[in-house]
Input
Amino acid sequence: MQEGRVSPWAGPGTREAHRDELSTLLGRVARGDQEAFEAVCRLVAGPVFGTVRRVVRDGAQSEEVAQEVLLEVWQCAPRFDASRGSAMAWITTIAHRRAVDRVRAEQRSAERELRAAAHAVAYDDVVETAEANLEAERVRRCLTSLTELQRESVTLAYYGGYTYRQVAALLGIAAGTVSTRMRDGLIRLRDCLGVTR
Amino acid sequence: MKPGRPEPPTLAGAYALDALTGADQARFESHLARCPQCAAEVSGLREATG
Output
């Protein structure tokens, strides 16, 4: 298990968000404790916004989505199961899914084209925050340990919000190949980041 | 399973990246419900992204 580990993808502020504290707080939130919910919000607001912003990009929309994420945390806290992963992973998973939902909902084909160009450099975004965030530096380093196809497949889906079929079309390779590269890339990334299970 | 389509387990990475939609997502989720190892694999892969 990854006791004490916080999301390396989630941006500055995560290091303070200790796993045990967050997990305990979520248990209280599940029972309707508003004070615990406020504490959760203080711990996760930064990582949630960071996760959303890297996908949605627009600041105002990212704030809206981040609010939706916190609301979902409040509503769905009873479903959090600590035996299935860390509280921060559970919350950033919600944040990422909501972010890609937003991107997909508003996308038109012309915007898609622009986004494809923007996300070609998506992984440089991680580099931007590296100075302020040692964890992001680890992610950057670990992304470079992936093969080019693994890295492109993972970053286009994660940062770009593309489905694996869209990634396949963008890269001009078979969808089955993309799904395999995504899986292999995530395994390599997880191993590189030192997440042990 | 039609030939040439990926078997559900290889979709674990795409699913962990929220990169499945529509029928792909529905098909994989119904597979997940019957496959505890696949669910565990998705949780494991999500520790890399979450």
